[in-house]
Structures are given as structure tokens and as C-alpha cells.
Amino acid sequence: MFSAEEFNNLPPLMQAELVLQEGHYLHHRIKGWCKIDLYWLYDFYVELWFFYDLKSIGLVRALTSHSALEPYLETIHLKVKT
Question: Which of 2, 26, 9 minimizes the C-alpha distance to 60?
Fold first, then answer.
């Protein structure tokens, strides 16, 4: 198990594999040319940014602040630890 900070220091390929194998898909949003999937992994949220072709991952990041969840708050209800 990793903390969000440790996860963000892993190589991107390992991050994506962990999220897809062990994460729990929650929701998605569209931003420009990307589809962004939100996952719950261990005890933090992670975004997978897919390029328009939906096959290539352009970014993986663990969300380390509550403000990073704001784009999702209008469309889903998330329980945020304070």
C-alpha cells in the first residue's frame, strides 16, 4: 500500500497499472481533448487522463487536496476525509 505522495513518485506506467488493477472506478469527466477517469485507490483518489483516442494515458496523478475534487462535486457525491 502506498500513500498519495509515494504513488505520485512511482513511474507513470506502474501508476497506471496499479490504478487499473487495484483501483475502484468512480466517475469520469471530459476536459478538452481528454477523458478523465476518477478512481479510489487505497485511501486516496487518482485521476487517469486519457487522450481523445481513449487508448493512450497522458497523465496519472493522485489527488492530494480537496480542491482537486471540485470538478466532480456537481455530478457525484464524494465523502471527503477532513
Answer: 9
